[in-house]
Amino acid sequence: MDFETSIFLRCHIADDFANSDGWDELIDRLxxxxxxxxxxxxxxxxxNERTGVHLCTCSYLGFGFASLTRxxxxxxxxARSKALVQSAQVHQGNDRVV
Length: 98
Known about the structure:
By secondary structure, the protein is of the alpha+beta class. The protein has one domain (about 5-90). It is built from three helices and five strands. Strands 1-2-3 form a three-stranded antiparallel beta sheet. A two-stranded antiparallel ribbon has the order 4-5. α1 crosses α2. The radius of gyration is 13 Å and the shape is globular. The relative contact order is 0.17. The mean pLDDT is about 90.
């Protein structure tokens, strides 16, 4: 992703990261804008929901996973897809959440 696009993207979602009360609210806000978060290796990645394209790490946009976990604790992660899920989804279905 080029620098100009990353600045535009950061401006588009910065408020969501800054004003969310936790992982659940952040997941909701990003989903409303067509994004979700997933892990690739040990990196938290912002993904376009419609295309499935991995856009960049959250750290690249200025929202490092370490600082997010300090504020909100560890997120719930779907074991198979590695996508972040809301707390309410943890006890639903047969898919394992870690």
